[in-house]
Specification:
The complex is a heterodimer. Chain A is of the alpha+beta class. Chain A is built from four helices and seven strands; from the N terminus they run E-H-H-E-E-E-E-E-E-H-H. Chain A has a seven-stranded antiparallel beta sheet with strand order 1-7-6-5-4-3-2, covered by helices on one side. In chain A, a hairpin with a 6-residue loop joins strand 2 and strand 3. The N and C termini of chain A lie far apart (37 Å). By secondary structure, chain B is α+β, with helices and mostly antiparallel strands. Chain B has a three-stranded antiparallel beta sheet. In chain B, helix 1 packs antiparallel against helix 4. The chains are: A alpha+beta, B alpha+beta. At the A-B interface, strand 1, helix 1, helix 2, strand 7 and helix 4 of A face helix 2, helix 5 and helix 6 of B.
């Protein structure tokens, strides 16, 4: 079979927070709050961030990494149920090159002493996203990554 | 059926050994008979068999016997569960949600 040019990946992340769903949801719906955990970080500089949080609204973020590469993130919100869930689609580009397109869902589930947040992403990762990586033999790549992970723990 | 976590643990245990990693790398190139794995690795046949048992239990390789020859080959789907685990660990979202947690915990949001 010919080499494929798209990798599909679905993953789910579950986290528990000791505050109620309304507070966790507010961290997604309020632009000033969202920027602080979503856009800010040591790994990169924010060039642009804007959030219009409503169904049909969008979010744009542009970051510059330490290596000088610019990453752009474009989001469109598909469905919002306050304090319950957010469904959105987003693309990522590295420079001019589109590297992924995904659908993501965030669910906010109340629990006894706080909130369980479930993040689900279904993504299509495109050729060239990692440059040579996707062209390498799949096994040597995975073994290399595994070696690094094992060395770290 | 093993939980995903138990499966990941088994694969990591299997690949945690450098000799077993060499075996997996060799088998990625082509299937070979069990007996021809030992010499290049400079270990006994008994040691190879033991390593292969662990690798087979973790779903990374498959051995079959035809006549008197036992052949082993890579099981292509074996690393899928680990691949997914690694992707999750590297996920941008993992870091973001972690940061969200820290800010919420410190009452900064």
């Amino acid at each position: 079979m010919a080499e494929r040019s798209v990798i599909h990946s679905t993953f789910v992340i579950e986290r528990n927070y000791a505050v109620g769903p309304e507070r966790v949801f507010a961290a997604f719906s309020d632009p000033a709050k969202k920027r602080r955990w979503f856009a800010e970080g040591d790994e990169f500089e924010i060039e642009h961030y804007a959030l219009d949080f409503r169904a049909g609204g969008s979010e744009q973020a542009r970051f510059r990494g330490k290596n000088g590469l610019t990453f752009t993130n474009q989001t469109i919100f598909q469905d919002i149920l306050p304090n319950r869930h957010i469904v959105f689609v987003y693309t990522m580009s590295m420079g001019d090159k589109r590297i992924s397109s995904s659908q993501a869902t965030v669910e906010f589930l109340p629990k006894e002493k706080g909130t369980t947040l479930i993040f689900t992403e279904q993504g299509a990762f495109l050729e060239g996203a990692d440059g040579p990586k996707m062209r390498q033999d799949g096994w040597s790549l995975l073994l290399e990554s595994l070696g690094k992970e094992l060395a770290r723990t | 059926m093993l939980t995903q976590r138990a499966q990941v643990d088994r694969v990591f245990h299997a690949l945690g050994d450098p000799t077993r990693r060499s075996i997996v790398e060799r088998l990625s190139q082509s299937a070979v008979s069990v007996s021809s794995l030992a010499a290049p690795l400079d270990i006994t046949l008994a040691a190879v068999v033991q390593h292969l048992q662990i690798l087979e239990q973790s779903g990374l390789v498959r051995t079959t016997k035809v006549g008197r020859v036992r052949t082993c080959r890579i099981e292509p789907k074996g690393l899928t569960v680990v691949q997914r685990w690694i992707e999750e660990r590297r996920s941008l979202w993992e870091r973001r949600l972690h940061r969200l947690g820290a800010l919420l915990e410190n009452d900064e949001l």
